[in-house]
Design brief:
This protein is an alpha+beta fold and 314 residues long. The protein has 10 helices and 12 strands.
Length: 314
């Protein structure tokens, strides 16, 4: 299997968001990628400039960040042609790696615009920014430049060109421990599972994850028994709830359970809307301490009191 570490540059409407095309607010203008083999050695590179069709002039912010202009962009090829070349170059056995989550979203939005998106389900990839943050907690989810500096990697090329950023991201990836790599993947949520049979269940070292199918109404999610059932992240056995599911904010629900063998655990259900307009949920269950249980209990009481006061006013 190969690791495709890629980076994108994109432009936006230079006249402001009120004039943008709602189907493609950000238009990709460059794709850069590095291919690593199973031994994490660089075996190939991909670099293409994309000739813009929607936003032919650079937004001022984009112009200041990039190292090229409109004249150079006109030397590129159309996105659909470049994207087909890129997907063919990736091959058939690979996993993506990116710095953050934005590149996969914008790649698929641009593919949707040209009706060529073949990704129809959540899929695994490596968020290298997130993995780096686990090892360097003081820096957290920092910019690529800071990560490169923290690892004392040589800076021979400018940042903010897709191929250079892909090279730097690949070098960061090469310098991180591969000991737990099998457990450090995440899922791309651009598309939700299409039906119950294709829902995603993933079990990591420190948490479990369930990505649900799409629903028409938000209320349907919290009525689904499989979603609200609390199971231990480790032994998968059904456990009793110590704090029932409650609305934590506008997009998430929280609950607390206790496994006889593996202690207190927190369940989080995050409600999301997919690109197709369906409403789906990502449920995670993870271990917590007694003090964290008490903090959740206090928060639940505070929210309950706020709702009570709000009802009184009305």
């Amino acid at each position: 299997m190969n690791y495709i570490i890629f980076d994108l540059e994109w432009n936006q409407c230079p006249r402001g968001p009120e004039f943008e095309n709602p189907r493609i607010p950000f238009e990709i203008i460059e794709i850069g990628a590095v291919k690593l083999n199973d031994d994490f050695e660089i075996v190939d590179e991909f670099s293409r400039i994309v000739k813009p069709r929607i936003y032919k002039y650079l937004h001022n912010h984009v112009r200041q960040m990039l190292n090229y202009d409109e004249e150079y962009l006109r030397t590129g090829k159309p996105f659909d042609m470049v994207c087909r070349e890129f997907m063919k170059w990736c091959g058939s056995d690979y996993v993506f790696g990116t710095w953050g989550t934005g590149d996969l979203v914008q790649l698929q939005k641009n593919m949707d615009y040209y009706y060529m998106n073949k990704f129809t389900q959540p899929f695994k990839y490596y968020n290298i920014q997130s993995i780096f943050a686990e090892y360097y907690e003081d820096l957290g989810a920092c910019k690529l430049e800071k990560a490169v500096a923290a690892l004392n990697l040589p800076i021979n090329e400018d940042f903010h060109t897709a191929i250079n950023d892909a090279r730097y991201t690949a070098q960061v990836f090469q310098n991180l421990s591969k000991k737990n790599l099998h457990d450090q993947y995440t899922y791309d949520y651009y598309h939700e599972p299409k039906d119950k049979e294709s829902e995603v269940y993933a079990f990591h070292r420190g948490y479990s994850e369930h990505i649900t199918r799409g629903f028409d109404q938000r209320s349907e999610i919290m009525e689904d028994k499989d979603i609200i059932t609390f199971r231990c992240y480790k032994c998968r056995k059904k456990i009793s709830k110590k704090i029932k599911w409650f609305s934590y904010n506008q997009t998430s629900f929280v609950s607390v359970g206790r496994c006889w063998y593996h202690g207190y655990q927190k369940g989080i259900i995050k409600i999301k809307t997919s690109n197709s307009g369906k409403i789906f949920a990502i449920k995670k269950v993870m271990p917590i301490t007694k003090s964290e249980v008490e903090a959740i209990r206090i928060r639940q009481a505070e929210l309950r009191e706020k709702r009570r006061e709000k009802r009184k006013k009305h």
